[in-house]
Every structure is written in C-alpha cells, then in structure tokens.
C-alpha cells in the first residue's frame, strides 16, 4: 500500500510539474518561475509521501487494536466455562471487521493524499508566482459528493492573500470573505476536494477589494492597453 501511494503521488507530481499541466491552472505565472520552484515542489511531494506512509502505519495499528478490543470485549462477556455453542464463522466475521475495512480506508487515503498534494503544489506555485487572492471552488454540485456545508458556503468567495505585491503596494484590501489563511485550506480536511482558483491581476478582483490607489492603478493599466 505504501508503494501504491508513493507511485500514485509521483504520477500526480509528474503530470502537474514535469509535464507542466500546473501552468494551465495558474495563468500569469511565467515558465521560468515554475522551473525555479521545482525543488520546493519536490519537497512537497516528499513531505506528502512521508505523511501518507505514517498514516498507513497508524491506520493499521489502530485497526489491529480495535480487533483486539473486540476480542477482549467478547471474551470478557463469556459465562464461566465458556459458551455452549459458538458460531465460529459469525464470530470471525464480527471480530475481523476493523481489519477487513483496511483496503477501503487505504483507498480513500490514497485519493485524499492525492488531493492534498495537488492543493499544496498549487499553493506553492501561487505564493512564488505572485498571486494576490484566491477564489474558493467547491464540488458540492457533483452528485454523490459528501461536501461540508461550510465549504459550500465558501463557494465563489474571494479571499485575499497576505503580504502579496498588491497588498504591499496598497492596491488591495480584504473583502467580505477576509484572508485566505483565516480559514481551513482546500484539501486540508479529510476527503475535501475543494480547490482555490488563484487570482494574479487586479482586474480579477471584486470592486470592493480594491483600494482607491488600486482603482487608479487598474484604470492606468487599462488605458495603456
């Protein structure tokens, strides 16, 4: 399972970074920027593989412990001298439920870690590429997706990124949604498939997130174009 997770994450990394599909998700980021931050992106891959390995071992330990607890509970409930009749097949099935659930748990972990890697790589690209804000995108419209209600409420909202070039220049201010780092990040919570669509230009922001100085700068940029 550890090998499968490692291969799965490396495949995602290869598609996003080596083949460059991450560039299509970040309009405005220069190719040389992506080339320069590859070592940082590879660090994210290594970190995610290590985290996944730890989770797999933890899950297995917990499932074995649950199985032993079930057995202990069953054994302590037996009458003196033991039961007259034991349905061994039923007993085995009941006691082994936690361990038998491992393949499902680990498949879910594999998918979840893939989403987390995707989100973390995207965040690094956005930070180093000069993103100024991020629009939340939820998959709540997808049939069968078990979304979180608060994540659905975030859908379409634009969150300001702290310490961006636009903030330092005095062009932007937080909108009604506030700052991106004041909320849980896409993919941070278990099985979250939400994502940030990063914004790199003043023209992409809602009017209320521009300062007077920002509006003037945008007006000049449009006039020059």
Outline the structure in words:
- This protein is mainly alpha-helical and 225 residues long.
- It folds into two domains: 1-129, no CATH class; 131-225, no CATH class.
- The protein is 56% helix and 6% strand.
- It contains nine helices and three strands.
- A three-stranded antiparallel β-sheet has the order 2-1-3.
- Helix 1 runs antiparallel to helix 3, helix 1 (2-18) runs parallel beside helix 6 (102-129) and helix 3 runs antiparallel to helix 6.
- The N and C termini lie far apart (54 Å).
- The mean pLDDT is 84.
Using brief descriptors, characterize the structure shown.
225 residues, mainly alpha, 2 domains, three-stranded antiparallel β-sheet, 9 helices
Can you give me a brief rundown of this structure?
The chain is mainly α and 225 residues long.
Globular, elongated, flat, extended or rod-shaped: what is the shape?
elongated
Structure classification: mainly alpha
Low-confidence stretches: none
The proportion of residues in beta strands is 5-15%
The average pLDDT is 84
Q: Please bin the fraction of helical residues.
A: 55-70%
Topology:
Layout: H1 2-18, H2 31-36, H3 38-76, H4 88-95, H5 97-100, H6 102-129, E1 133-137, H7 149-154, E2 158-160, H8 165-168, E3 195-199, H9 212-224
């Amino acid at each position: 399972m550890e090998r499968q997770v490692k291969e799965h994450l490396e495949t995602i990394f290869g598609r996003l970074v080596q083949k460059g599909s991450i560039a299509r998700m970040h309009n405005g980021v220069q190719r040389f920027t992506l080339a320069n931050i590859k070592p940082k992106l590879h660090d994210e891959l290594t970190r995610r593989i290590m985290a996944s390995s730890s989770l797999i071992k933890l899950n297995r330990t917990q499932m074995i412990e649950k199985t032993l607890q079930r057995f202990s509970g069953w054994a302590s409930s037996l009458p003196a001298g033991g039961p007259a009749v034991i349905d061994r097949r039923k007993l085995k099935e009941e006691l082994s439920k936690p361990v038998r659930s491992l393949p499902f748990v680990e498949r879910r972990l594999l998918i979840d870690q893939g989403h987390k890697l995707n989100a973390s790589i995207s965040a690094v690209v956005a930070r180093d590429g000069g993103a100024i804000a991020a629009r939340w995108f939820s998959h709540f419209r997808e049939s069968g997706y078990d979304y979180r209600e608060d994540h659905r409420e975030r859908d379409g909202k634009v969150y300001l990124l702290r310490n961006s070039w636009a903030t330092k220049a005095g062009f932007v201010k937080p909108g009604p949604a506030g700052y991106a780092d004041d909320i849980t990040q896409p993919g941070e919570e278990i099985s979250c498939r939400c994502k940030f669509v990063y914004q790199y230009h003043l023209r992409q922001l809602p009017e209320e997130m521009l300062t007077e100085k920002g509006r003037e700068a945008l007006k000049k940029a449009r006039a020059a174009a």
